[in-house]
Write a structure and sequence with these properties.
It contains 14 helices and 11 strands. The chain is an alpha/beta fold. It folds into 2 domains: 223 residues, Aldolase class I (TIM Barrel); 68 residues, no CATH class. Strands 1-9-8-6-5-4-3-2 form an 8-stranded parallel beta sheet. Strands 7-11-10 form a 3-stranded antiparallel beta sheet, with helices on one face. Helix 5 links the parallel strand 4 and strand 5. The radius of gyration is 18 Å and the shape is globular. The two termini are 28 Å apart.
């Protein structure tokens, strides 16, 4: 399997693990890269010095390409960018901000850049900013989402016809069938979050992982729309957020309710009652906690099986 995404990043399969807060440490990133995908370290939940250590441990654990995901709305971004350059990271995925801000500097140091968007409008801005690839993420995704609430099946063909850059699909993808569907719609690769969050190497707590395996359709909803739209599991904290939003709470009140470290409390520390629990809709299809390598093997096997099966479908 070879296309513009595999060539751009120097990987075997066009599969990228999402840089998820409290899930995407060096162990998950290196495991995905060793299995032929592109592993991303999630800088959003790391202090700069901690990120440096994760990069160095990832280098020791794999000789394959890996990258760092940088949410641009987070503090210490300039320090994080400097660390990435100093440590010789070759791939950066940016999100939640203006792609023009850091793309030029990163590319001056030979770093490949992809930026995450939720609409065709922002995809074109990425192309103008000079990024190497675009990740179009649909409404089904876990964590922070676009305000447009466009589903992946609608978003990918819209963005595909607008761009000349390589396109990576994200949101609700965790199987070989999902990967094949995304490529049929115009993507050349997939970024997968939730399926990799629920693996052995994910740094999320065991309590969080086990709870996610029990989720059914409708057990996650997009919330916090006034602050930063985020897909959450419906727990007690989610109910408090909904009650506040229903009575018209201000942005300041919602930020105070969130406090500091709410996602760490839920995802990393395993507080399933008062923690912020971020996971994608596809969690309702996941029933096991395999290794990251097994996830990639299963995705590729299913992709190839479905592709072969469709060859036998008669044309209309």
């Amino acid at each position: 399997m070879s296309n513009r995404i595999t060539s751009l990043f120097g990987i075997k399969y066009p599969i990228i693990s999402g840089g998820m807060v409290w899930c995407s440490g060096w162990e998950l990133a290196s495991a995905v890269s060793n299995a032929g995908g592109l592993g991303l370290i999630g800088a959003g939940s790391m202090h700069p010095d901690n990120l440096r250590q994760h990069i160095r441990k990832c280098k020791s654990a794999t000789d394959k390409p890996f990258g760092v995901n940088v949410p641009l709305m987070y503090p210490n971004v300039e320090e994080i960018i400097d660390i990435i350059i100093e440590e010789g990271v070759k791939v950066v995925f940016t999100s939640a901000g203006n792609p023009k801000t850091w793309t030029k500097k990163l590319k001056e140091h030979g770093i490949k850049i992809a930026h995450v968007v939720s609409s065709s409008k922002f995809a074109l801005k990425c192309q103008e900013a000079g990024v190497d690839a675009v990740v179009a993420e649909g409404f089904e995704a876990g964590g922070h989402n676009g305000r447009e609430e466009t589903t992946t099946m609608v978003l990918i063909p819209q963005v595909s016809k607008s761009l000349t850059l390589p396109l990576i699909a994200a949101g609700g993808i965790g199987t070989g069938s999902g990967m094949l569907a995304a490529m049929a719609l115009g993507a050349e690769g997939v970024q997968i979050g939730t399926r990799f969050a629920l693996t052995e190497e994910s740094s999320a707590s065991d309590e969080f992982k086990k709870m996610c395996l029990e989720l059914k359709e409708g057990d996650t909803l997009l919330s916090l729309k006034k602050v930063s739209p985020t897909r959450l599991v419906k727990n007690e904290f989610y109910k408090k957020v909904q009650e506040a939003e229903d009575r018209g709470a201000s942005n300041e009140e919602l930020r105070e309710l969130l406090g500091r470290g709410r996602s760490k409390k839920g995802i990393f520390e395993g507080d399933l009652v008062d923690g912020e629990l971020e996971i994608g809709q596809i969690s309702s299809l996941i029933e096991d906690l395999p290794t990251a390598a097994k996830v990639i093997e299963n995705i590729i096997d299913e992709f190839n099986h479905q592709l072969e099966k469709f060859k036998n479908i008669p044309q209309f």
